[in-house]
Sequence to fold (192 residues):
Amino acid sequence: GSSDAACLLRLLQTLAAGRVDEAALLAIAARVGADVPFFLQDAPMRVTGIGDVLEPVRLDLPGRELVLVTPKLTVSTPWAYQTWDKICGQDAGSGGSEKALTKSGAEDKHSSLSGSRGFTARNDLELAVFPSYPEIAEAKDRLLSLGAAVASMSGSGSSVFGLFQHAAGAERACEALSAVWPVRRMRICTGM
Fold:
């Protein structure tokens, strides 16, 4: 959804041949969807709120391996946010998610990637989604048990990613997980 919208907006900007600057494009994107501007960024971002608060971060990830596991489930994004609101007792878009955090990524033994100072991955929506979709939680747990330095659900699910230090570990994880779920392996690059 949101990534497709961002791709279309970028195409329209290109076709407009310079008549739409970056600031205008980001404003249009925000009207399309709260998290659409994120998908127009060409750098890693820390994303908070409902996907609308972006903070650039510096990560040293090129050459690292990413394994994407996609359980054959569909999770409704509105449902995930409504469930999160019920758990928090607050509107997730009002900063409630920052105040009602479960466990800090720094406390999680699987949360950091060496060589990327302070890099952690935490998705607060896991608290809402995992109880109703235990298969997604299982995919994350399996990635971690197979050696992922970091694993997290992507967006509201159902995909889960794991970052691996080395290709061999990512390959072993793919072999083990592909018997259960659709799996993709990729190398992180910079630039396009």
Residues 91-112 have pLDDT under 50 and may be disordered. Residues 2-56 form one domain. The chain has two domains: 2-56, 65-187.
